[in-house]
Amino acid sequence: MAETVETPTRGDVTASATPPSGIPPLDPTAWTCPAPLRDHPRIVMGHGGGGALSAELVQHIFAPAFGGEVLAQMGDSATVSLGGARLAFSTDSFVVRPLFFPGGSIGDLAVNGTLNDLAMSGARAAYLSCGFILEEGVELSVVARVADAFGTAARNAGVEVATGDTKVVEAGHGDGIFINTAGIGLIPAGVDLRPQRVVPGDVVIVSGAIGVHGVAIMSVREGLEFGVEIESDCAALGGLVEAMLAVTPDLHVLRDPTRGGLAASLNEIAAASGTGVVIQERHVPVPPPVANACAILGLDPMYVANEGKLVAFVPREHADAVLDAMRAHPLGGDAAVIGEVVDAHPGMVVARTGLGGTRVVDLPVGEQLPRIC
Amino acid sequence: MKYIDEFQDPALARRLLDEIRATVTRPWALMEVCGGQTHTIIRHGIDQLLPDQVELIHGPGCPVCVTPLEVIDKALEIASRPEVIFCSFGDMLRVPGTGRDLFRVRSEGGDVRVVYSPLDALRIAQQNPDREVVFFGIGFETTAPPNAMTVYQARRLGIRNFSLLVSHVRVPPAIEAIMQSPSCRVQAFLAAGHVCSVMGVGEYPELAERFGVPIVVTGFEPLDILEGVRRTVAQLERGEHTVDNAYPRAVRPEGNPAALAMLEDVFEVTDRSWRGIGVIPGSGWRLSPRYRDYDAEYRFSVTGIDTREPAQCRSGEVLQGLLKPHECEAFDTICTPRTPLGATMVSSEGACAAYYLYRRLDMKKTAPVEASSVG
Amino acid sequence: MCLAVPGRVLEIEERDGTRMATVDFGGVVKEACLEYLPDLQVGEYAIVHVGFALQKLDEDSARQTLELFAQLGMLQEEFGDPWEMAAEAGGLPLPGSGEAAQEAQR
């Protein structure tokens, strides 16, 4: 896991972007903001890991530089009003090694990742943009395979690729193919999905087995290879979200737990809503190959990436009906209630362990690293 | 996974807990030596389930935490060299040296790679004959045989561009050092099962006798930990102090003879400094003179390193069980897993990081959760 | 220290003069060096740490340990398990949690 950010850099700003030239380098000794960047005067991989380091980068560099009320929402996608319509707008960049992995490729991922960000605001995705950054020397057949996967994924989701761009960087300055996508979609009336709407008593539902994508990617990663019959869960979740909203538009918040896994999504929601989240660990669906791969590498499945799962915070009175609707959908067959929202320990996620103890599920710091001890 | 899942069974855990409850009559302080055991205890909330009389002190058995600062600084220096590919277990990348860590070296252009096995590093050396490949050989008696075999193979296969930066440590001298500390509170040890899988149990009877402490070889799954505690408490209550094996499925009294022979060939015992604790005589291994050509300390003469440990860090007292992590003034103020002062805040087995993660909860007074935490 | 897990040997082969095995960890297959367990056979279990099999896992011993645990506190069972009763009294029921538990355990 060392050298790659396995999943896309998520959110509205990419952590792996090179700062434009002309900006003076930061002088760490003159830096006045409290601690965060002082001990890392340069970008480290953890800044793209979706955890605390990523959050600090956005909070201390990008947000102050950009400003703006819309950005301050800090959701997976932004909600904007334009000509009387409520739109969801999102962008996402994809740096994946290897480009092809069991169950998908960077092409599928680049489409589904952005579509899922839109879906998490309840929007029906309409248009996508795509920017390809190609490394000199990449075989055309590889580019064609990725483009084909990209187009197929978009068509399957009923979304049109409306605009695109291509750049080439010198050999050694890229990782084969990087892709950026942006998407827009219309948010139906009555739908308002935000962590601020989460209240104690809400029920936490996950749409299926966790950790599948991350383990599929790790299994083919250089230096870590292992054999496992598991494929990435990469999928567009728009249809599942529509089925859930058909039960009630009054869902409180949705997230697709990509980088940082379920733990990162739950922590973001707990922090933004000022509530506590309690998870029943034995109810969290972890397939045996995921659990066992994590056991060997010393990882916690709660921190492993997903690309076709969502976590929903649902008012208690609708929970059973929403769960039924999810299970009736092909992408939600293994949906499960995993916990609830409480007013104790605001901002913290706590798991009740299988043995009956409790533990804190913290925001991951940076990259997840295999342990030996 | 077979032989893991069965040893996490909640119903059997309750039986063991009930048995411990029925046996214990007064307070006892047990030290689990191994960081992997600390991880299991915290990960499953076992410390909260034990009766109040049983106190678990987290021992110094996390190799990441005890690797001395000067060795970390040497690693950082070597990893910064352009001709070097520096390979390490993932745990070591975040450990702070003087002012920086291996992540930072990588961000400054160093070629630092995480590997699963030292054999992966050897393969990288074969694939990159024009580069110097250095493996960071840390760990206890469990990890020493893999590293020893890798050096042995490098020599056998004539792979000249491979070397090992060694900082191996041994458990028995650490137990001795802990027991000799005047303020020692430890009354019994849960010995590290996988260390004993390699070494056997021959080194422990003398320690149990000399210091009058039960030493129970203990495994790593929740039921293993509870069984180790159960047997230890039973001995303490009876006033006994013998060596007992609560992990017989993976530990034979004689250990692994082939691994012991390899250790004898490749390494020699040396004094070793433990981060935060100081030098413990005879507590480490270094490459024996026969393998000096594969010793990174000799291959790269690293000098002029200014090693400085932050003054506020009291990890040494924590590692010796003299201070609970949250009693340290720096804990959760200037020292967090994000900005660790010492290695005990880095590794998820480090006592401070474990406390930070799982025990902040207690300090936030979470009565409602605790009330419903049974079952 | 020492994250080591039990795996079952699927295949054994010599490579570069080294005895290597393909080991199954509950559906996850990885290679391990067998030089330290020269007598280990296909079908047997070993404790594997950083790509090395370090000790044979004694399956009989594992079974005996579990049987011992199962026999602890047999007396209490006749009167009902106080933990389970406490859990039923104190636990917060969640919608669909019964089904969810079954899903999770599948």
TrEMBL record, chain C:
InterPro entries: Hydgase_assmbl_chp_CS, Hydrogenase_HupF/HypC. Coiled coil: none annotated. GO terms for molecular function: carbon dioxide binding; iron ion binding. It comes from the Bacteria. GO terms for biological process: protein maturation. Residues 86-106 are annotated as: Disordered. Belongs to the HupF/HypC family. This is HypC/HybG/HupF family hydrogenase formation chaperone. It comes from Streptomyces atratus.
